[in-house]
Amino acid sequence: MFYRPNIDDHGLPHNPFKAIVSPRPIGWISTVDAEGRANLAPYSFFNAVTDNPPMVMFASTGTKPDQDYAKDSVANIRATGEFVVNIVSTDLKDVMNKSSGALAAGADEFDHAGILKAGCNMVKAPRVAASPAALECKLFKIIDLPGVNNVMVLGEVVGVHLDDTVIVNGIFDVTRYSPLARLGYKDYTSVTDIFALNRPE
């Protein structure tokens, strides 16, 4: 089949786009607002974009009734210029999901979901203490995208936290914590095994 997004009716019960572009890592973004109140929310439009300097992006889509622009994470990053990306292990799937609820602006999802905070070194936002890795970020740029309140946030990684228990023989071993990834619809997956490929000479 072929269809043109936003022009043709694909005829399927659900939009397949997010299922096609999958699996997608989850950026569990922690921020503080201008008053220092913490916020935590997962975003599946997330990835690393460069490694020198290390930079990441996430995109926020849609609106929130009590925010004039995008969602709480983006509003907080606009106010402070900082955020943290917390990596989600499969063990954290339920509390990650609980933190995705639409709480009022200023509400603390850490407290709501029973998630322990840990301090950061380079930014004011807290990180998820149980996360296998956390990336402290300074805002590089916010880009408005086509559509209603579609926003991409680019940040430079200025600090990295690693759980020592997942470092094996000098390698950050993702099989020690099984990263959670988003598929389409309501579906998720986790990394349980890996294989290596060498580039051609």
Largest sheet strand order: 3-2-6-9-10-5-4
Helical amount: 10-25%
Indicate the overall shape. Answer: globular
Low-confidence stretches: none
CATH class: Mainly Beta
Count of individual beta strands: 14
Element-level helix/strand string: HEEEEEHEHHEEEEEEEE
Concise synopsis of the structure shown:
The protein is mostly beta strands and 201 residues long. The chain is built from 4 helices and 14 strands. A hairpin with a 5-residue loop joins strand 13 (180-182) and strand 14.
What's the layout of helices and strands?
Layout: H1 17-20, E1 24-25, E2 27-32, E3 38-43, E4 46-51, E5 54-60, H2 72-80, E6 82-87, H3 93-98, H4 109-113, E7 117-118, E8 127-128, E9 133-145, E10 150-162, E11 167-168, E12 171-172, E13 180-182, E14 188-190
Antiparallel strand pairs: 1-13, 2-3, 2-6, 4-5, 5-10, 6-9, 7-8, 9-10, 11-12, 13-14
Can you describe what's shown?
- The chain has helices spanning 17-20, 72-80, 93-98, 109-113; strands spanning 24-25, 27-32, 38-43, 46-51, 54-60, 82-87, 117-118, 127-128, 133-145, 150-162, 167-168, 171-172, 180-182, 188-190.
- It is mostly beta strands and 201 residues long.
- β7 (117-118) and β8 (127-128) form a beta hairpin.
- The longest helix has 9 residues, at 72-80.
- The radius of gyration is 18 Å and the shape is globular.
Provide key terms for this protein.
globular, mainly beta, 14 strands, Pnp Oxidase, Chain A, 3-stranded antiparallel beta sheet, 7-stranded antiparallel beta sheet, 201 residues
